[in-house]
Q: What sequence folds into this?
C-alpha cells in the first residue's frame, strides 16, 4: 500500500490507475470501514482510502481535539484489507489558507443532525468535494449509518455534475446490534452495555410501522421517552421518507415505499446516531 500525504504525489500515483474507488474516512478505523473498503474493491481496480480529521465539520464544543488519531493501527488494517493507496493529507495540504469558500448544502442540512450540529454538513460537503478533487474517483463508498450524510453528498454529486458513482454500504453492527462507530471507543463499559438499546428502540418503531402503525409522531415520542428513561439525552427520534428524508404525512396517507427511522442521542458525553429502514405494510405506491 502506498501512503501519500500530498495532492501532487497522489495525482502522480493515480495517473494511470484505471478505475478508482474511494473510501473517505476520519480514521480510527473499525470493521465498518473495512467493509466499505471491500465494497470499494468491487467498484474499482484501485482502492484509495483517505484519513483526515476535518475540523470544518466539528462545532466549537465538539470532539475535534479528542477525536482518536490512530494512523499506525489504521494503516496496518488497510494493508491487511489490500487497499492500494492511503491518502493521509496534513492539515496544511487540505487547508493551506483558511477555507473561506464553502459548499452550501440544501435545507435538509439544517434538519435532524444538522439541527443539533450547525454547519456540520457544510463542513462535510466542503471536505468531501476537496477530497474528490484530489482523488478524482470513479466511485465513492459511504455508509448508510450516516444516512443524512449519504443523502446530502449524493445530492451534491448530482447537482455539481461530478462524474462519481456514490455507492451506499449497509451498516455493520456488533453482535448486540450496536452500529459500529469510531465514537463507540469513548463509551465506558456501563455505557457500552446500554448503547445497543438505541438500535433496539429504532427496531421497535420500525416493527410497529411494518405491522401497520401510521401514527409516526406517537411512535417517535414513545421512542424518545424510552431512551430518556434509560438515561439518554435524546436529540431526535424521527420517521422520514426513504428517498428525500422528507417528513411523511402524519397519518401515513402518502404511502412511501420506504421509511427510515433515525435517531441521535447521547450517553454521557458520547453522541451516537443510528437508523433502520422499514417497508411499510401497505407495500408499493
Ligand atoms: O463520515 C465520515 O467519516 C466523514 O464525515 C467524512 C465523509 C470522511 C468527511 O470528513
A:
Amino acid at each position: 500500500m502506498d501512503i501519500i500525504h500530498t495532492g501532487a504525489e497522489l495525482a502522480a500515483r493515480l495517473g494511470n490507475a484505471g478505475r478508482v474507488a474511494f473510501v473517505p474516512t476520519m480514521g480510527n478505523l473499525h470493521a465498518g470501514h473495512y467493509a466499505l473498503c471491500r465494497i470499494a474493491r468491487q467498484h474499482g481496480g484501485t482502492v484509495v482510502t483517505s484519513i483526515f480529521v476535518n475540523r470544518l465539520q466539528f462545532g466549537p464544543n465538539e470532539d475535534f481535539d479528542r477525536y482518536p488519531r490512530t494512523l499506525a493501527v489504521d494503516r496496518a488494517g488497510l494493508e491487511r484489507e489490500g487497499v492500494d493507496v492511503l491518502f493521509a493529507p496534513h492539515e496544511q495540504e487540505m487547508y493551506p489558507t483558511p477555507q473561506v469558500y464553502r459548499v452550501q448544502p440544501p435545507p435538509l442540512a439544517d434538519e435532524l443532525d444538522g439541527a443539533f450540529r450547525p454547519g456540520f454538513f457544510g463542513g462535510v460537503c466542503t471536505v468531501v468535494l476537496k477530497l474528490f478533487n484530489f482523488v478524482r474517483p470513479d466511485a465513492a463508498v459511504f455508509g448508510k449509518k450516516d444516512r443524512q450524510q449519504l443523502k446530502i453528498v449524493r445530492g451534491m454529486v448530482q447537482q455539481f455534475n461530478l462524474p462519481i458513482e456514490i455507492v451506499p454500504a449497509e451498516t455493520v453492527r456488533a453482535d448486540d446490534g450496536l452500529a459500529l462507530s469510531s465514537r463507540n471507543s469513548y463509551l465506558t463499559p456501563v455505557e457500552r452495555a446500554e448503547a445497543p438499546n438505541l438500535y433496539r428502540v429504532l427496531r421497535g418503531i420500525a416493527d410497529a410501522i411494518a405491522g401497520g402503525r401510521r401514527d409516526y409522531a406517537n411512535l417517535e415520542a414513545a421512542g424518545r421517552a424510552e431512551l430518556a428513561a434509560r438515561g439518554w439525552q435524546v436529540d431526535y427520534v424521527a420517521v422520514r421518507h426513504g428517498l428525500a428524508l422528507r417528513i411523511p404525512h402524519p397519518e401515513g396517507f402518502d404511502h412511501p415505499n420506504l421509511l427510515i427511522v433515525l435517531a441521535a442521542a447521547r450517553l454521557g458525553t458520547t453522541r451516537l446516531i443510528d437508523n433502520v429502514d422499514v417497508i411499510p405494510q401497505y407495500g408499493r405506491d
